[in-house]
Amino acid sequence: MGATKFEIYTEELIRLSELAKAISHPARLKAVLIIANETDEDVTLKDIMEEIDLAQSTLSQHLKVLRDAGLVMTKLIVENNTSKQIYRINKLALEQINKLLNHLSDRIDLKQDDRFNAVKSFYSRLYEITNWNQCFNS
Predict the structure, then answer these.
(1) CA–CA distance from 78 to each of 35, 42, 75, 86 (Å)?
(2) What share of the chain in percent tops pLDDT 90?
(3) Could you tell me if residue 128 is inside a domain?
(4) For the domain that residue 74 is a member of, what is the CATH number?
(5) pLDDT for the residue 60
(6) According to DSSP H, which parts of the chain are helical?
(7) 72 in a domain, yes or no?
């Protein structure tokens, strides 16, 4: 039997991979964008369901992945004998992802050859995107 990831990799590396994995699904990424866009209002599951056409149970599972990874924080609020869970972005987690991407961006030194140009043309659509929310409109 092989070694576990906890024996091979540092805690920081495992944590960053879990953050990246959490936003690697389009529904979870869209949920993060929805939650991040609402700076003045509390975001509930109902609000997210209005924008993402998934079953409530499926969306709840996606939000659990985001919460377990630490990308979103939740708070239970009770009003008028009704409880609801609100979601907020964990800014520190997003800063960790940003640091990783900045580190990678600062370190890359790609050789200009045919393989690089093929990859660049494959991802050229991403360079044209200025409004990320448009990518996730249903």
Answers:
(1) 20, 13, 10, 11
(2) 43
(3) no
(4) 1.10.10.10
(5) 94
(6) 5-8, 11-22, 26-37, 45-51, 56-69, 91-107, 114-122, 124-128, 132-135
(7) yes
